[in-house]
Structures are given as structure tokens and as C-alpha cells.
Amino acid sequence: MKEQNLNIRYMVAQLSELSQQEQKLVNRAKAATSNAYANYSHFYVGAALLLGDGRIVIGANQENAAFPSGLCAERSAIFGAQSNYPDQPILALAIAARNGNGFLKSPISPCGACRQVILEMEDRYQRPVRILLYGENGTYCFDSIKDLLPFCFVDSNMKE
Predict the structure, then answer these.
(1) What is the DSSP letter of 71?
(2) C-alpha span between 143 and 59 (Å, rounded)
(3) Is 133 helix (H, G, I), strand (E, B) or coil?
(4) Which of 22, 63, 74, 122 is flagged as catalytic?
(5) Distance CA 93, CA 104 (A)
(6) How do the pLDDT tens digits run along the chain, 160 residues long?
(7) Is residue 17 annotated as part of the catalytic site, yes or no?
(8) pTM flag (> 0.70)
(9) How buried is residue 23: exposed, middle or buried, by Cβ count under 10 Å (0-12/13-18/19+)?
């Protein structure tokens, strides 16, 4: 038996340190929290996608009394983009969350289902999706969802 280590590289940046395009994407994710329907958790999540043509598509979490019939902000944005612009790859995804006290100090990370859907987009378009996780104390920046989903499973795994 041999012990191995897994290292994940990411940057932590203040909003002002991001590129103007990334700042715009994060701000759109923050604004998208206002579109959340979070009647039960009172936890408002917004997502913003940057598509290959420069278009930004937003999503917000949508809850439902018949749990788990709701949908996360990330998948809301991705499925909307894929339904309307299926020929456009997703270049970047920003996520922001707030509760009754305002925007969270530390970033939140996508759930497992959202991570798998983002991974599918990377596999579909054969390009990484830059992930920006916003928090008041800093934004975590990842070059690919694979950084958040080590030992991932994609179509090519079934062909080896």
C-alpha cells in the first residue's frame, strides 16, 4: 500500500484583482441572487456563465415544497444556456450566495450534481470552464471544474 497526496491549485483574489470581464461575471452572479426563489432555506444563490460568443447567461436557485424538485443556480444557468445557445461553449462560471445577513464572507462551492454537470460541459466542448467562487473576503479562482472534482468520471473513462 502506498500513500499519495492530492494537491489542488487555486488563486484567491479580491474582486478588484480580477479582470474586468471576470468582475462583470461575478457582479452578474451577485445580481442573479435576486432572482432566486428560496422560500424555504432563505439561501440565495446566483450563477453567471460566460459563453464563447461573450454572452452572459444567469441562473438562480429555485426551491420547491416538494423537495428535491428545486434546482441549483449553476444547473439553472447551464441548462438555460444549453437550451438556447447549444453551439456556445462555457468559458467561465461565477457563483455568489447570500442569506439574511448579506453576501457570504467565504465562497460556497457547487454541489456534487452541479460539479458533474459542469464537468460534462468541459467534456462536451473539450475545454476547461474557469470557476469563480465569490465571497466578501475573497474570490476563489479555479482553472477547471476538475480541480473541484478529482478522480472525475467522463465519457472517455468508459472507452479505456
Answers:
(1) B
(2) 21
(3) strand
(4) 74
(5) 18
(6) 999 998 999 999 999 999 999 999 999 999 999 999 999 999 999 999 999 999 999 999 999 988 888 999 999 999 999 999 999 999 999 999 999 999 999 999 999 999 999 999 999 999 999 999 999 999 999 999 999 998 887 777 777 6
(7) no
(8) yes
(9) middle
